[in-house]
Design brief:
It is built from 17 helices and 2 strands. Helix 14 runs antiparallel to helix 17. The radius of gyration is 30 Å and the shape is flat. The longest helix has about 40 residues. The protein has a two-stranded antiparallel ribbon with strand order 1-2. The protein is mainly α.
Length: about 450
């Protein structure tokens, strides 16, 4: 039995507890549900909550604490000379023990001591899981029996269930807020370490990006220049190209499907359009690198232009195709939500369909359209695979769409690939890029909200 099977068993017990609680309530009322304080479903929900919540809380806490407990137990069983190893060497030894216990490749010769440690780890893992499963199942059964004993005709099950659900919702809200705070703090802390090594002005206004720091005094080719302007310029260039493709096509397709298309055409055209959103980005990257980029280069050469094999235009155009469904689908839903009475009133005043769309429907749907465009911008800024495969890794400060550029997300991935030491300026630069990108996205959100509030029209 593993965690997935245990979870399924707990969910099965929860369903059983629900029906037990419901039947218990009906029995105590003599079959007359009108004699109950709450609906029978509330009594079932009360029993189900008592069954699943304590067990899941224990499982969650157990999963968090058990790795530390098992590691301490494993270290205590190692030979004295192994326990005396430095922390980094001891960590490597423990990693080999874990790999051997799970059947993976180890980095050293398998000795008798290493095999014994792996066997011991397997045994304590099995014992740990059996203990956790027994306690969780016991809590589920015990919670079900306890809730069943509390159920009666006068028991206020609805109040208890609603308080519990409210507490769950509040907890979920706090988790979301704390997660956001944690992300921001992690970026801030690491970025401050970076700015202790590199000047903030150099990072924000420097025109050269070459984050290869020298490991030795005589090392060549590691300038360590951290001017991020070329990186942000490349991000802006590709995003503008993508939005120039996605917004007109997406918005016009949304207007056509909502105002002009027949129900039959809309029934198959909209799902077909939304298929674009389900294609993996790496497939778009292949399409951009193998099809679009050579075509653009051929056209450019036929016109006497110098076009790089990896260009911002190829990456931006394919990225724009990828995010068309984000603009089209959301704008279509927003336009369909505009009350029909507004259309009828416009037609009654003598306006044509196109005039109604331009002067009534689009202004009424503007907040939702702005939201869809903002989502598309965020999607374009955060895209990585297409840029890596079609635009390259060169941090060029240029506004020429025919040249190779790079973006913030690509540089973050490049800087954090492989085993990195998080005390070097090269690695910490990734957090500084992420922090600036976070504030740029925040500013975009504020601007979008301001536009929505200014141009929102309210209708009765």
């Amino acid at each position: 039995m593993n965690i997935a099977i245990l979870t399924v068993v707990l969910l099965g017990l929860t369903v059983i507890a629900y029906y037990m609680g419901r039947m218990r309530a009906i029995q105590t009322a003599g079959g007359h549900t009108s004699a109950l304080h709450s609906l029978p479903s509330y009594y079932g929900a009360y029993a189900a909550l008592w069954c699943v919540i304590p067990a899941l809380l224990v499982m969650f806490a157990w999963q968090i604490t058990s790795p530390y407990v098992l590691t301490n137990m494993l270290v205590g069983e190692l030979p004295a000379e192994a326990q005396a190893l430095p922390s980094n060497e001891l960590g490597l030894l423990l990693n080999d023990v874990r790999n051997l216990a799970t059947g993976n490749i180890v980095s050293r010769e398998v000795s008798a001591e290493l095999q014994a440690a792996a066997d011991y780890l397997v045994s304590i893992r099995n014992a740990n899981f059996i203990a956790m499963a027994a306690i969780c199942l016991g809590l589920a059964v015990g919670g079900t029996l306890y809730s069943r004993s509390k159920i009666g005709a006068e028991f206020r099950a609805r109040n208890s269930v609603e308080r519990t659900v409210r507490l769950i919702l509040i907890t979920a809200s706090f988790i979301a807020i704390l997660t956001t705070i944690g992300i921001v703090l992690s970026l801030l802390v690491e970025s401050m370490l970076f700015f202790e090594k590199v000047s903030l002005l150099e990072f924000l206004f420097g025109l050269t990006w070459s984050p290869q720091t020298a490991l030795r005094a005589d090392q060549v080719g590691a300038s360590g220049a951290f001017g991020a302007v070329p990186v942000f310029a490349g991000t802006l260039l590709i995003t503008v190209i993508a939005m120039a493709v996605a917004v007109p096509i997406g918005l016009m397709s949304a207007i056509y499907m909502s105002e002009y298309a027949t129900p039959h055409f809309r029934a198959w055209a909209k799902p077909l359009l939304e298929i674009l959103a389900g294609i993996p980005t790496v497939v778009y990257g292949f399409f951009a690198a193998l099809t679009v980029a050579p075509v653009i280069r051929g056209w450019g050469e036929s016109l006497g232009l110098s076009v790089a094999s990896e260009s911002a235009l190829a990456a931006g155009a394919v990225m724009g195709i990828m995010i068309i469904p984000f603009v089209s689908s959301l704008s279509d839903d927003v336009i369909n939500a505009v009350p029909q009475t507004l259309r009828d009133g416009s037609y009654a005043l003598g306006a044509t369909k196109s005039e109604t769309i331009r002067q009534v429907i689009v202004p009424a749907a503007l907040p939702g359209i702005v939201g869809s465009v903002l989502l598309a911008v965020s999607r374009a800024i955060g895209e990585t695979m297409i840029v890596v495969m079609a635009a390259g890794l060169s941090a060029n400060l240029t506004a020429n769409p025919f040249e190779a550029v790079t973006t913030v997300t690509v540089q973050i991935v490049t800087l954090l690939v492989g085993d990195q030491e998080f005390d070097s300026a090269k690695t910490l630069a990734a957090f500084a890029l992420g922090l600036v990108l976070f504030f740029v996205t925040l500013c975009l959100n504020v601007i979008a909200l301001t536009v929505v509030r200014k141009y929102r029209e309210k209708y009765d």
